[in-house]
Design a protein that fits this description.
The protein is α/β, with parallel strands linked by helices. It has a single domain (5-206), classed as Rossmann fold. Helices cover 39% and strands 21% of the residues. The chain contains seven helices and ten strands. The chain has helices at residues 5-17, 50-67, 80-92, 133-144, 161-169, 180-189, 195-206, and strands at 21-23, 29-30, 36-37, 39-41, 73-77, 96-99, 112-113, 121-129, 148-157, 174-179. The chain has a six-stranded mixed beta sheet, with helices on both faces. A two-stranded antiparallel ribbon has the order 1-4. Helix 3 (80-92) links the parallel strand 5 (73-77) and strand 6 (96-99). The longest helix has 18 residues, at 50-67. The two termini are 33 Å apart.
């Protein structure tokens, strides 16, 4: 679910401008999963741009106030959700912790860093949702520690059907500040891509495993 459509457009435009999101349907990027992708997304770059960072933080806070007013702890998913989560926790005056991708190999071998106590209401912060697999592992870790996960708020989602299915199966409410559909709309209006590119980019989202690049060049290339 998109939190606020007008803000979602603003965030999409900002991410394109600072090149946190890059679109290239003719020369795709390679994901670790082996997929070829016409989009590259690194929302951590937003931290280097105070106006963008501030707007994202404000929208996180507003989304939590509206959808998760009983939040008692903010938890970031490593690594992209850590900094944004800490900023949100500071703005809300709430405790912060983060969840590692795997348990630390030494010391206390923690998976969760910081103090979260049994029964506390937790909102998880993430920067990017692809299939939802790694994000939902963080939810599992919190639930295994007897926390009440109210839901997750993320900056951006590719809106894959697989992700929707995974979040539904885990009964985890997901709110996002922007998404792939809005990104394409904004990218066309701001001339980052042409209308001709949209078909290929839409086909990739529908079936990323079988997608192949288009011969159509980017409008601004």
């Amino acid at each position: 679910m998109i939190f606020n459509e007008e803000s979602a457009k603003k965030i999409a435009e900002s991410l394109l401008q600072i090149k946190a999101i890059k679109l290239n349907p003719t020369t795709p990027f390679n994901w670790a999963s082996g997929w070829s992708s016409p989009i590259y997304c690194d929302n951590r770059k937003s931290l280097s741009y105070p106006p963008v960072r501030t707007h994202i933080r404000q929208q996180f806070v507003s989304a939590i106030h509206e959808h998760f007013p009983n939040a008692e702890v903010i938890a970031g998913v490593a690594t992209g959700g850590i900094a944004h989560g800490a900023l949100v926790a500071e703005a809300l005056g709430l405790p912060f912790a983060y969840i590692r991708s795997s348990s630390k190999g030494h010391g206390m071998k923690n998976l969760i860093e910081g103090d979260i106590f049994e029964g506390q209401n937790v909102v998880v912060i993430e920067d990017l949702i692809s299939t939802g697999g790694s994000s939902l592992k963080a939810v599992d870790a919190l639930r295994e520690n007897n926390c009440n996960v109210l839901g997750m708020v993320a900056i951006f989602t590719y809106d894959f059907e697989l992700a929707k299915k995974n979040f539904k199966e885990k009964k985890c409410k997901l709110i996002t500040l922007s998404d792939y559909h809005i990104l394409l709309e904004v990218a066309v209006k701001s001339h980052h891509i042409s209308e001709l590119n949209v078909k290929s980019l839409t086909e990739w989202r529908a079936n990323p495993e079988k997608w192949s690049p288009t011969n159509e060049k980017l409008e601004n290339s």
